[in-house]
Design brief:
Immunoglobulin-like, four-stranded mixed β-sheet, five-stranded antiparallel β-sheet, globular, mainly beta, 3 domains, about 325 residues, disordered N terminus, about 5% helix
Length: about 325
Amino acid sequence: MKRWLTAFALVASFACAAEVRLTDPGHIEARGLDLRVFRGDASEPLFGSVVKKGGSVLFTAVLPLVAGESYRVEVKSADGSWSEERLKFKRVGTAVPTVSISPLPTVLPANALKLYLHFTEPMEQGVFLDRITLQREDGSTVHGAFRETELWSPDGRRLTLWLHPGRQKTGVNLNTDEGPVLQEGRPRTLRIAARWRSTAGGPLGKEFVFPVTVGSTDHTCPNPQRWQIRVPKAGTRDPLKVTFDEPLDPAMLASALKVRRGEAEAAGTVAIAVDARSWYFIPVEEWAQGAGMIVIDPLLEDLAGNNLLGPFEVDRDAPAPAASTTTLGFEIR
């Protein structure tokens, strides 16, 4: 007898030779000595850990299991034989995910290292290289454009999309042999496949297309002395605004700047402009008169990986420089 597992009600499924059950999302338990979990008819098992618990084994997947996907579970019994069971999550009232990109508009330096995809739902992982295509203006595909490292935010909604650093860094073998991923003045198009699903099983349903404009290379470090500060008035909760002279890494901006009043860090909420050129701090309490300070993490990067301590393409034999500025003062009146 086989029962389908739903994304919200975790129901046991039984094989003829071994009982297999989903105990929690991402955890599969079976009676036996060992088990392997495969995605559909794949030949390679999923990455995960297997822990023995008495007469049972518990598999914990590294990546989230996806509703709507079929999984093949192979269980080794006490006599050494293997049995097989198939499990599947039914999709139950799943929301249709959408995706956006940052920075937006996507104007990247030719030596850019990364950009970000933001999804409205936690997404299927381990498949991004089969769901994303970067094309030249003639429609041809830029093969090997992305680093295979898959870095998701803890909630599974933001993917850091790394352009292959070996092709983006000048003089490296891949850069010389295969050419850079981006070229100044030559636009690119990023395509996101409609079949990419959320972990609840809902596909995007349509292809998302994002134009990418490519500018000149950037080997200049971010310089806070060129930033502009808009100071709010005392007695308000208006935002403190910092405007940069270039787009900075939008994910790093969420935590790289801190506001201090006196010896204490001010409590508040941070917002980042979609073009990654402005940063806002909205305080919990009204601004009081007096001096304040913005403390900047010197590792804050621009889109080409240059930080306050030095450019990404640095001479490794040269002494490490000190950041020119890591604090900015302001006065509330």
